[in-house]
Amino acid sequence: METDKKSKRSKLIYGAVIAVLILFFIVGFSYGLNSVLIMEGSFPPVILIEGKTPEPKNAQEALDYLNRAVKDAQAAKPKFESDAWFSIDADSVTAAGEDAIRETLLYIRDDFTDHLNETLPKQESDFAEDFSGLLRVPALTADDIESFTCEYVYYKCASCGETSDAPQVNCEYCGSDQPYDMQYRDDYTITYHLKISDSVLRKNFTVRTDEEIRALLGDQLDDVLSLDSVEPTCSALTIRMQINRTSDEIKSLVFEQKMPVRVSGNWKILPERACEMAADVTETHRYQFTWPNLSLSASSMDLEPKGTDHLLATLTFSSPSQENVVWTSSDEAVVTVDDEGYLKAGRDTGTATVSASYEFNGKTYTDQCNVNVKYDVESLSLNKRKINLNVGNTFTLTAKVSPKKATIQTVTWYSEDESVAVVDKNGIVTAVSPGTVVIYALSDDLYYKSSCEVTVK
Q1: Is the peptide bond before 403 cis (omega within 30 degrees of 0)?
Q2: Spatial distance between the Cα atoms of 66 and 243, rounded to a whole number of angstroms
Q3: Which of 135, 150, 242, 355 could form a disulfide with 251 if both were Cys (CB 3.0 to 4.6 A apart)?
């Protein structure tokens, strides 16, 4: 009998525990769902920073920019490297006769280009060394430029970060129905498409005689082919510059010459068979510039009072020495920094600038990080998710920033269509004309967003 009572009691307790757990789950799920609904995420605003030199608008501006960038590099003497290579477009390879001949040419294409590339020089100079004798300096007039492009704009989904070179009205990757935000890359990539002329070719590219071409081919074809003629022509000439937009420091300069080549002769491995073949060959010369620099691992950082973190200084020099970096804080009551970049926040909130500097070749290089000591915003919600108003009526929306100890409690208000309803800095919504509009608040810290749908009748 006693055993039955214990069994019933255990079942009641077990059932009660299950009921409590289910209740907790329902409440927790509802709370979590509501949190997801009222807090729509963090959306940092897009800040488009213009370049030190504006995007060139015509051929003369583009040419002046190129000439100035090369001249500045010659004077500043960054580290310099050059290389060159040939490439053969597989789709362009043709050969008279059986298909097996073309297939054989495609098979040996990589080995043949490797052989050609071994004949091209690779040169370099260290920081502060004169490289003027190694650099091919463009010799152009604006009239030599057929056209040019300047690329630096791209587009990014604010929700998932997917990028595209073209505008997108929504994101097929994450399902967001918002247009991609326009962004700026760190560099301009300017491509100069040049007119094909003997003057442009000879002043800016490599022009080889028939003897030089035969010497370049070397003994790669001697066992299989006796050459009668090699006829290269020119189908495209381009120069491409990549340059940092904010510093005007050139990163690379590329000369590219596309040459359809026709070869005729006789096959040694196929007696009494003539050889006729052609391919598009591209010869590329690339010059790369590495500028002295010091950069920190972050340009801004948030710490809670008494919090710690670490900044890393990356040096771009011949023999960088981390020990010679000098660290300073603009306000040690807010944050201190030691000689290895370790940060420690003070008791109170505030903002300070941590700087790292380094001397190289008579010049001081520096970078900075803004350190904000504060309690972060973790969520943002509005008192209403949907409201209905008649034209001319008003309603006050209030925004709740959590947690209460968050240092920055302010928000900024926006209307997505002010012809339907407007909102002032205090969250007062005024109905203007019939329709539906989204009014939203954006926290001034970490940019959390929460919105309210307003229907005006």
Answers
A1: yes
A2: 9
A3: 242
CA 45 to chain CA centroid, nearest Å: 17
Query: Token digits for 449?
Result: 């967003």
Taking only the tens place, the pLDDT of each residue in 319-354 is 665 568 999 999 999 999 999 999 999 998 999 999
**One-letter amino acid identity for 401?**
V
pTM beyond 0.85, yes or no? no
Evaluated on CA atoms 372, 373, 378, 384, the torsion sign reads negative
**Closest C-alpha among 343, 315, 316, 338 to residue 327:** 338
SS3 content of the chain, % helix, strand, coil (to 5): 20, 40, 35
User: What phi, psi does 94 have (nearest 5°)?
Assistant: -130, 155
Please say whether the dihedral angle defined by the alpha carbons of residues 183, 68, 120 and 147, taken in this order, is positive or negative.
positive
Q: Identify the bridge partners of residue 73 per DSSP, sorted by sequence position.
A: none
Task: Report pLDDT digits (tens) over 151-208.
Answer: 999 999 987 889 999 999 999 988 888 889 999 999 999 999 999 999 999 999 988 8
121's tokens = 């020089």
> How far is residue 96's CA from residue 221's CA, in Å, rounded to a whole number?
17
The count of residues in the chain is 457
232 contact partners, CB below 8 Å, separation of at least 6: 208, 213, 259, 260, 261, 281
Q: Which residues of the chain have pLDDT under 50?
A: 1-3, 5-6, 16-17, 19-38
Q: Can you read off the two tokens belonging to residue 61?
A: 């501006």
Alpha helices in 39-92 (DSSP H): 59-76
Paired tokens of 456? 């005006």
Q: What is the DSSP string of 280-345?
A: EEEEEEEEEEE--EEEES-SEEEE-TT-EEE--EEEESSS--GGG-EEEES-TTTEEE-TT-EEEE
